[in-house]
Design brief:
The protein is of the alpha/beta class. The protein has 13 helices and 11 strands. It has a single domain, classed as Luciferase-like domain (TIM Barrel), CATH 3.20.20. 45% of the residues lie in helices and 16% in strands. The chain has an 8-stranded parallel barrel with strand order 1-2-3-4-7-8-9-11, surrounded by 8 helices. It has a two-stranded antiparallel sheet with strand order 5-6. β1, α1 and β2 form a beta-alpha-beta unit. It starts with a strand and ends with a helix.
Length: 321
């Protein structure tokens, strides 16, 4: 069991993301996971720096902690050749501490380059081609690829780590879980769904299983819930909505009826560490072994202090119970 910390790049400016990553290492987290967005989900979040620059800076500022994207979409805003080069460089700069999290993306971030937003079936087929391209480039040498949606022409990533960068593929359903088993080295989910992990394993997946655990730490339950509602009410809209809306204003409208009680039903809120440990338990019981604590409370550094002293070891111990 490993315990990670979610660095939501939409919630803090780039310098603060780096400082939080350094603090997470000092607090004893095993890894940090950075979202890779062009826009924030809501205007209230107010940020969305370039994730790969922050990853490079964190590689230089830290010594032990693992780094991961959670997750990068390699089919529209980025070409997979660029993702392969960025991942290889980050792995080298971090001395092998990097994991590439990959997913089919959201319109929120991908529409900005004017390439349209395909149906979910097309996106999954594009993702297969993107992963095939990335794997080829990780093999070394000059590579070409002529797919239905994506092409690669005589390309080589010159600076590669000795061991290929591990790839964790995001899944919200059985088709994506089977894709993760076939083309990835691990699974990435956002809900404690045992069936997704079972599908991944049955399809031959043998790598680590990542899952995000939503919580809001704060001095009071009310303050934590209010901050979670202000910045993270969008999470209650569901992935079918989250993948399709183009801009923060649309997410504001879509989450307009979300109440504080709704947020309390999704996030463990407040200073009670027992509640946050119990929030993580269903993910462990479902079989996930890389838990990512996604704190959206009002005091990120305060959370990291408390997590380092009292929470990380307790969550890690769930995997031994």
């Amino acid at each position: 069991m490993q315990v990670g910390y979610k660095l939501a790049t939409e919630g803090h400016d780039p310098k603060e993301i780096v400082e939080l990553g350094v603090h997470a290492e000092q607090a004893g987290f095993d890894f940090v996971e950075l979202s890779d967005h062009y826009h924030p989900w809501l205007e209230e979040q107010g940020h969305s720096g370039f994730t790969w620059t922050m990853l490079g800076t964190l590689a230089a500022r830290t010594e032990r902690i693992g780094l991961a994207t959670g997750v990068t979409c390699p089919i529209i805003r980025y070409h997979p050749a660029v993702v392969a080069q960025a991942a290889a460089t980050t792995a080298l700069l971090s001395d092998g501490r990097f994991t590439l999290g990959i997913g089919a993306g959201e319109r929120l971030n991908e529409h900005v380059v004017g390439g349209g937003w395909p149906s979910v079936g097309v996106r999954h087929r594009m993702l297969v081609e993107a992963l095939e391209i990335i794997h080829r480039l990780f093999e070394g040498g000059y590579q070409s690829y002529d797919g239905q949606y994506l092409t690669l022409e005589d390309a080589r990533v010159f600076d590669l780590p000795e061991t290929p960068v591990p790839i964790a593929v995001a899944a919200g359903g059985p088709q994506a879980a089977r894709l993760a088993a076939d083309k990835g080295d691990g699974l990435f989910v956002t809900e404690p769904e045992a069936s997704l992990l079972e599908t991944f394993r049955e399809a031959g997946g043998t790598g680590p299983a990542y899952a995000e655990v939503p919580l809001a730490y704060g001095a009071s339950e009310e303050a934590a819930a209010e901050e979670a509602h202000r910045t993270s009410r969008w999470t209650l809209s569901g992935w079918k909505v989250m993948a399709e809306l183009p801009n923060p204003v649309n997410f504001d409208a879509a989450s307009g009826t979300v109440t504080l009680d709704d947020v309390r039903g999704q996030f463990s809120c407040g200073p009670d560490l027992d509640a946050h440990v119990e929030q993580a338990r269903p993910y462990v019981e479902a079989g996930y072994d890389r838990l990512v604590l996604m704190d959206v409370g009002p005091d990120a550094h305060g959370f990291l202090d408390v997590a380092g002293e009292q929470l990380v070891d307790r969550v890690r111990a769930l995997g031994r119970s």
